[in-house]
């Protein structure tokens, strides 16, 4: 069946993992839509399912395989016709996919996304396996946003040159590659014209932006230009590496009103010896100095970080020091991963691998401590007035919900708030609410006034 006969075929897109993967899916959807494909939410009522996988850690791989097995069942039942697998897992395990999952009709590497419509047409004549050089992966092109219409992710680079010892991303995505500033600005202007009010800046390391392309760290320059675009209210930064948070960047965040005072800084650990084993820079003293500087220079800043427990060789003493560090730094947001032993990474070959149960237990300890800190933070916020972007209405709770600047989309939860009966609050509106209570580590509030 040729492409012309596939015009009204229904496609379900399942995108797993990070926002960078989500942007890839949005670009593939735009290319498919341009060829006449229609989209449905439920895989079971589609003709083709595109599974865009994540392959970062074991849990992500397991999730992708669970989805794949579900789709294979649907195909065996005759409810779907074709399965297409893309994303980091297919890029990393291309040979295994072809060999172990003959039910999959197309296995596609990241360099071939721009040809996804051709691949859809081609697979109707037989299995397709398409891969190219990772560095040819295009970051340009139209997108069909899969987020709520008032926010969007903006990928400014792909790949990674940091080569952390535990991480397979450089093997999967290739070298770090920045997009030209003019391309980013052009896409941002279109997003603003389409009604996007919050722009979330993403890359594997946004603070490295421009080093490969311009020979300098160009994130502040890019941010200043983005702040000139009418329409954006919030510009948010994710994935900042501590050693590249410069005085220039701090000044830019401090000075520009549109840049929300929120930074995601994946520290991974505080112990200098373990950081060196990770092939990362810094130590506890330098990290303490950075956190103190950020809080001093940008009052009220929200800091998010991630930690890894159970890296090979991590002692009980080093873990306890990490717990003390997290407690003293009092990060407003914190994620934690138990070390995942990834094939062909230096860490996987290190001696003194920590028992998996110990890794998980240490992770749980840090998460429990963080839950307590968040509860204390939220209790201290009762009575405060905050600005919130409306994201929906919970009919069970009979409350609206939304996010303040200290809540990043999809990872930091929601604030629930009441409004006068019959009050209509469109999704994407910004309103003022007063925090009145805390329930199960959720902030509860009431509407003060609608700012429109």
Could you explain the architecture of this structure?
With 452 residues, the chain is an alpha/beta fold. The chain has 14 helices and 19 strands. It has helices at 19-34, 58-76, 88-92, 94-100, 116-123, 169-173, 181-193, 211-214, 219-227, 247-255, 272-277, 284-297, 316-329, 356-381; strands spanning 10-15, 38-39, 48-53, 82-87, 106-108, 128-130, 151-155, 157-158, 177-178, 198-202, 234-237, 259-264, 302-309, 333-338, 385-394, 399-403, 415-418, 430-439, 442-450. Strands 2-1-3-4-5-6 form a six-stranded parallel sheet, sandwiched between helices. A six-stranded parallel sheet has the order 7-10-11-12-13-14. A five-stranded mixed β-barrel has the order 15-16-17-19-18. Helix 13 runs parallel beside helix 14 (356-381). The longest helix is centred in the C-terminal third of the chain and has 26 residues, at 356-381.
Tell me the layout of helices and strands:
Blueprint: E1 10-15, H1 19-34, E2 38-39, E3 48-53, H2 58-76, E4 82-87, H3 88-92, H4 94-100, E5 106-108, H5 116-123, E6 128-130, E7 151-155, E8 157-158, H6 169-173, E9 177-178, H7 181-193, E10 198-202, H8 211-214, H9 219-227, E11 234-237, H10 247-255, E12 259-264, H11 272-277, H12 284-297, E13 302-309, H13 316-329, E14 333-338, H14 356-381, E15 385-394, E16 399-403, E17 415-418, E18 430-439, E19 442-450
Parallel strand pairs: 1-2, 1-3, 3-4, 4-5, 5-6, 7-10, 10-11, 11-12, 12-13, 13-14, 17-19
Antiparallel strand pairs: 8-9, 15-16, 15-18, 16-17, 18-19
Helix pairs in contact: 9-10, 13-14
